[in-house]
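Q: What structure does this chain adopt?
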Amino acid sequence: MTTPFFSIVTPVYKSEDFLEASTRSILSQTFSDFEFILVDDCSPDACGAMCDELASGDFRVRVIHSSRNEGAASARNKGMDAARGTYLLFLDADDTLDADFLGTLFRRIEGTHPQIVVWGAVEDYFDELGKPTYSRVVSLPSRSLTTAEEVRGSLIELEVSTLFGYPWNKAYDLAYLRGTKARFGEETILEDYFFNLRVIHSCSTMLIIEETPYHYAWRESGGSLTKQFLPDYFELHKLRVQSMLDLHEEWGIATSKVKEALGSIYLRYCLSALQRTYDKRMGMSYQMRKAWLEDLFKDTLYVELVPFANASGVIARTFEWGFKGRYSTVLLMGAWAVDLIKTRLPILFTRAKKSR
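A:
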């Protein structure tokens, strides 16, 4: 059996409305040396049958059926274990890839064989009725990183751009990936982020390409965990920032520039967590919110990073001023206003949030 150059893994669950377009974007690629692994995560809709039909009509398609729903992390791990290609890619079942990208990717990495390839994305936003509202392009300039020092130096830029944490904007050298023993974990959210943190730890070659072939669908009507009520939201995002800081400290490159970037990211999570205290499911009174803030001001990560934060934009700078000055009343009033906008004007809220 010949080894395909690319293995593409797609977890499938409750995505029958989008699966046909997503799979077509792969099966119509101009570059054909790939295998396409669909992991049906015990989807209750027609997805399992759709996957089987695709496999019956194209030898490149393989289907794994899970006996019970275990989540996207488990589905990706199963696909990763089954993969036979030289490089491994992930595709979400409601997203699409430009039809000529695999050929472009092959030509860019042929002869150089980086351990990780990173590309940009087009984020397409849809309202609750499925109507497209706007798109946002996320990209970084192309460059080849050929030493561990260069890869490590690029990490904070990837994180600030939001391109680091996703698994679907990357190609992983499968032999290297298996050597890292990285797995998608059981975190409530951010399992993709912690997976990539494990993968990059020993990486010494990376290719960043400016192309934006991946179309990521952000749907207001979706049931994504990122849109659900998560009591441990802030603790997980604190762990995200702490893990990134710890890695830079381990490498001896936790510079003021790194802390400035992480401080700004951390403050965004602080604001988001404060805004979430207005969710009725939190059951918090004004005094409880104020006490939460007072505890936050004493947090070791807060003390270490907030002085370095350097926000851009009038609103972000205003909140930064409030956090640095520890002005509880101002912050609580501002968070209440943010929650009001999020509740009544969700598209405007998301657009403002993504443009920070």
